[in-house]
Amino acid sequence: MKLLRGGRLVRSDGIEPADLLMEGETIKAIGKIDQPGAEVIDVSGKLIFPGFIDPHTHLEMSGGCDDFHTATKGAIMGGTTMVIDYATQSSGGLVEAFHLWQAMAQKSCCDYLFHMSPIRKDKQLAEEMFWLQERGISSYKLYLAYDDLRMNETDFVETLKALDVIGAFVGVHCEDGDRIKQLQQEALERGEIEPLSHALTRPPETESRAIDYLMNRAEGCINIVHLSSKDGLERVRYYKQQGKDIVAETCPQYLLLDRSLLDQSREEAVKFIFSPPLRTADHRDALWQGIADGVITTIATDHCNCSQASKINNYTDFSRVLNGIPGVETRVHLMLSEFDKRGLGYAKAVELLSTAVAKQYGLYPQKGELAVGSDADLVIYDPTVEWTIKQELMSTPGDYTPYEGWNITGKIAQVYLRGQLAVDNEKWLGSLGRFQTARRTHDNS
User: Fold this and answer.
1) How do beta strands 378-388 and 47-50 pair?
2) At residue 442, does pLDDT exceed 70?
3) Which of 115, 412, 434, 443 falls 20 to 30 Å from 46 in CA-CA distance?
4) Residue 62: its pLDDT value, please?
5) How far apart (Å, rounded) are the C-alpha atoms in residues 225 and 251?
């Protein structure tokens, strides 16, 4: 048994001084504890968080520069003890994709689960959904952009209905793909090939229009993933007021960065090409308000680790650049520091980075909570340390971080994965994660 003594426990409902006792993989006791024979670990002056969960990653993505092992090593070094990755259908069925992702994830350094992402409505799709449900898969992702990933309207609507039947939680990439294609073609015909046109041809209204299209057809539980604009935020707010079962996720890049980063040298600007694109500062400010008033309920990364070199090599125009940025290692530090600076508090950060995620995906209270019986996924954090993010400090592979030079207050000291010390003062200790099944369908309670 391990006894953490002298720390302050941070939950989504507040902070309290308490000791915490771990036995095996779970939390055994919380409070004023005297346990003979336990290994006592002094965490005086430190905060203890539940392990953080990143519900939106694309690991081992084609063209990317990391895999399940290297990306999740970075994740757990950065306080994320579980990722939920997108298992995307290719030439085979969803069951084949599930087996492929299971094989890739065997080398994961943190716990993991998958969202399944069908890209067409095969005749066996409904049967496969039930098979996956029996194996703990309760969430899916559909696309309204990218010709190689989005379905035609008939298949899209029928798939939504099938997912509602099984009670699945459905995340949707909301961009108006047809409008974007039109704007891109017009820009290229005018000779506008630089990175800034990536954002200009994916304006905020393409997000809000896609949300309207979706919500006029959806019947079940909907998650608007990587929400990026005040236009989209207002549509989510509207549908929530209408009683629709809709939640929204955003990402650090939309909360911290802005479109001006695309209006610099091509070599630098390509680092910030991802979709949806960066917006102007007023959209960033609106998203923070959406967090404060509860419209946005989770913060993920949309981690797609494409190197700067892969983006700039053989550059022809903005539409052909690999989309994506790294983020799984920096999310927790960035958000804890920023939430504290903005006066939103650590408890609110825990809600959006861990507890609400666990509830949405059927993992609570095993994950996302500090409670007796919960997994001993713990992040020990010193709120006084000041440091600066630099690529040279990152464990995740790649040749840049979009947050280079970002000043952070607070630093992770240790990370426990199911009771095992996995990270100790910036040293990874060789932990391995395992598949976590969702135990119920979405109820967001």
Assistant:
1) antiparallel
2) no
3) 434
4) 84
5) 9
CA atoms of 281 and 284, how far apart (whole Å): 5
pLDDT at 158 over 50: yes
DSSP alpha helix (H) spans, 34-174: 68-77, 94-105, 125-134, 153-165
- Residue 445 has a pLDDT of 41
Q: What is the phi/psi pair of residue 101, to 5°?
A: -70, -35
Beta-carbon contacts of residue 330 (< 8 Å; ≥ 6 apart): 78, 252, 389, 394, 401, 403, 406
pTM here? 0.97
Report the distance separating Cα 374 and Cα 26, nearest Å.
6
Is the distance from CB of 304 to CB of 66 less than 8 angstroms? no
Give alpha helix (H) positions in 201-262: 204-215, 230-241, 252-256
Percent of the chain with pLDDT over 90: 96
| Residue 440: predicted pLDDT | 57
Q: How confident is the model at residue 73 (pLDDT cuts 50, 70, 90)?
A: very high
Exposure of 83 in the CB half-sphere (CA atoms within 13 A): 34
Please count the other Cβ atoms lying within 10 Å of the Cβ belonging to residue 148: 7
Place of tokens 């391990």: 2
Distance CA 390, CA 297 (A): 29
Q: What whole-number distance in Å separates Cα of residue 31 and Cα of residue 29?
A: 7
Sole residue written with tokens 């492929």? 100
Total H helices, total E strands in the chain: 15, 19
- Strand runs (DSSP E) across 6-157, as ranges? 8-11, 14-17, 19-23, 26-31, 39-42, 47-50, 52-57, 80-88, 111-117, 139-143
CA Rg, the chain, in Å?
21
DSSP H/E element including 414: strand 407-417
What distance in Å separates the CA atoms of residue 185 and residue 274, rounded to the nearest whole number? 18
The stretch 432-437 carries a mean pLDDT of 97
Instruction: Give CA–CA dist 272/275, Å, rounded.
Output: 10
